[in-house]
UniProtKB/TrEMBL annotation, chain A:
<feature type="domain" description="ABC transporter">
    <location>
        <begin position="17"/>
        <end position="261"/>
    </location>
</feature>
<dbReference type="Pfam" id="PF00005">
    <property type="entry name" value="ABC_tran"/>
</dbReference>
<dbReference type="GO" id="GO:0005524">
    <property type="term" value="F:ATP binding"/>
</dbReference>
<dbReference type="InterPro" id="IPR050086">
    <property type="entry name" value="MetN_ABC_transporter-like"/>
</dbReference>
<comment type="similarity">
    <text>Belongs to the ABC transporter superfamily.</text>
</comment>
<keyword id="KW-0813">Transport</keyword>
<keyword id="KW-0067">ATP-binding</keyword>
<dbReference type="InterPro" id="IPR003439">
    <property type="entry name" value="ABC_transporter-like_ATP-bd"/>
</dbReference>
<dbReference type="InterPro" id="IPR030679">
    <property type="entry name" value="ABC_ATPase_HisP-typ"/>
</dbReference>
TrEMBL record, chain B:
<dbReference type="InterPro" id="IPR000515">
    <property type="entry name" value="MetI-like"/>
</dbReference>
<keyword id="KW-0813">Transport</keyword>
<keyword id="KW-0812">Transmembrane</keyword>
<feature type="transmembrane region" description="Helical">
    <location>
        <begin position="102"/>
        <end position="122"/>
    </location>
</feature>
<feature type="transmembrane region" description="Helical">
    <location>
        <begin position="50"/>
        <end position="73"/>
    </location>
</feature>
<keyword id="KW-1133">Transmembrane helix</keyword>
<feature type="domain" description="ABC transmembrane type-1">
    <location>
        <begin position="50"/>
        <end position="257"/>
    </location>
</feature>
<protein>
    <submittedName>
        <fullName>ABC transporter permease</fullName>
    </submittedName>
</protein>
<dbReference type="InterPro" id="IPR043429">
    <property type="entry name" value="ArtM/GltK/GlnP/TcyL/YhdX-like"/>
</dbReference>
Amino acid sequence: MTPVQRATTPDAARPMVEAVAVSKRFGGNEVLTSISLRVERGQVMCVIGPSGSGKSTFLRCINHLEVVDAGRLYVDGELVGYRERGDKLYELKPAEAARQRRDIGMVFQHFNLFPHMTALENIAEAPTTVKGMSRRDALERGRDLLARVGLASHAGHYPSQLSGGQQQRVAIARALAMDPKLMLFDEPTSALDPELVGEVLDVMRELADTGMTMVVVTHEMGFAREVGDAMVFLDGGVVVESGAPRELLANPQHERTKAFLSKVL
Amino acid sequence: MRLRHPGRITVAVILILLVVLFVLDAAQRTAFDWPDVGKYLFDQRISQAALITLQLTVYSMVIGIVLGLILAIMRLSPNPVVKAVSWVYLWIFRGTPVYVQLVFWGLITLIYNSIIIGIPFVHTWDVIKIDWVPPLFFISVVGLSLNEAAYMAEIVRAGLLSVDAGQEEAAKALGMSWGQTMRRIVIPQSMRVIIPPTGNEVISMLKTTTLVAAVPFSLDLFGRARDISAETFVPIPLLIVASLWYLFFTSILMVGQYFLEKRFSRGIGRGRPAIENDPDAPVIVGGVGGVR
Ligand SMILES: Nc1ncnc2c1ncn2[C@@H]1O[C@H](COP(=O)(O)OP(=O)(O)OP(=O)(O)O)[C@@H](O)[C@H]1O
Ligand SMILES: [Mg+2]
């Protein structure tokens, strides 16, 4: 891993995500141990690792759904979840934390669409309640986004009336409706039937082509190889190995990486 | 032709015969005094009392639901003090009979007839007399609603807990505040679990209002029926009149409950939009939208 400096660099050169020795424990169980990495603007970073290695926990730390115990996380140069005054860190108030999360989109393994709202309402919800956008504008924007994920004709469907792949595409559109600068994907295709994986990956590929910065936890190595700009292998809460996906997948350096890849490839 | 359910039909025929017998018999019994039932059914005193019973029910339920929601949220709070307050409230109000509570509320002006300013058992600076005597209707509503709040709290809590944790997380990740998440995401989904038992609570409240006699408040439906029969010495027709009114209200409530339940199960069925109103469409009762 490249040694990381404090994120004080202005704009364009500033990484989108910068983790500096991030640690997280649940009770006595240390789930993340001193994770340091950076995701540049416009990059697609793939995170792989065995079950329980802390991949989800790391993603959740990035948008402060989990509180980091030690180390620092910066998103676009801004410290996540804390305010730094002098040498001390003060945890942000809930409203301030919510403000930070607006700019970070998240897509979940189980979609987590709101079942009491139609696809279109799901997408229009946050822009209206959080950003105060007019309902009309939000619905119009929602229609555009639905068209973008290939579901223009499904606006009035409730989540229970959509296939898994369709639900996940709506979930992606819902996250995009907040105009995020960073998108987090936590195993977006692993709850899907194999024949539905492709349609979701296609949407993600198109999104990457628009220059969106993405952190993707995935076991879709084909996608990682093709779309990913960087890759880290997590095991036991530490970054065991990182590098360009092609390189790392074809030529793993660590025994643990080799063992893991031999199982999933 | 063979009968498909010979047992069922036999039982049904016997039951119908018994009902017919009972009705014919009741029609002839003088104690029921049917002409009097007809006379009092639309008596103005009775219909006014019915209105008061409705008011008792509505006010007590509305206050009970609001307080119950607050208590439920308090119980789910991470703050142990807040949690304990809610727990103690539930412990007291669910642990004592509502009749006894109503007697207590009726005596409240005797218990708290003054405010003592000073140090207890040591020194008294001043005693402020409380002159205000609240109307008995008001006391009845207080008694009924504070009791109801304890039951509603449990119902609301079960509803809130029934919503998948992923829902709150998704809302949070979109930048929604806790309040927005509750109002827009969690509470609407919990309604599906909250409404059926709440409907039962409304129906039960309608009947519990008869206990305001303990306050003692007697302008409600049953109280009025009792008072009239005390003058006329014919209790039975008035009991029937009161029962018919209660039955009428509960029947309406049951119909309302049916439509509310339908409204809040939106998005839960699995049908395509075209067959959304298909009554035979399977409904997933436990899960959230078949996501898992
Ligand atoms: N809220 C929590 N409380 C306690 N322990 C937790 C919590 N969340 C996660 N853990 C533990 O942290 C460890 C890492 O979990 P995490 O979900 O981040 O792994 P993962 O790499 O995403 O695994 P998977 O591939 O199965 O999703 C696991 O041992 C898990 O049991
Ligand atoms: Mg995970």
